[in-house]
Design brief:
- By secondary structure, this protein is an alpha+beta fold.
- The protein has one domain.
- It contains three helices and three strands, in the order αβαββα.
- The chain has a three-stranded mixed beta sheet with strand order 1-3-2, with no helix packed on it.
- The mean pLDDT is 79.
């Protein structure tokens, strides 16, 4: 994958007569796990066994260190998990 510099981007804009789509990225603080719903087309399997229990222990001791990626869900006030399903599951178990 290569990056596109500003001049090339302006050239694309002139040729297509369209402005590039802007995607805003923001940080959302989520304190209630009930607001998170899994992405139903998530292609990966959740951890099991000792690997999962190690993650639970880490989350219990350190909290979730690596941020999860979410997007607003169609249901008001809910967020769909795009990345971090295992971390969220480990948080559920660690809080139990």
């Amino acid at each position: 994958m290569r990056t596109i510099d500003k001049e090339e981007l302006l050239c694309i804009e002139r040729i297509t007569k369209k402005k590039p789509v802007s995607r805003s990225i923001s940080k959302v603080d989520i304190h209630d796990l009930k607001t998170l719903i899994p992405f139903k087309y998530h292609p990966f399997m959740l951890y099991e066994g000792q690997r999962f229990m190690d993650m639970v222990e880490s989350v219990h001791v350190n909290g979730v260190i690596v941020l999860i990626v979410v997007r607003p869900a169609t249901e008001e006030g809910k967020y769909e998990i795009l990345s971090g399903h295992n971390r969220v599951e480990a948080e559920w178990v660690a809080k139990a």
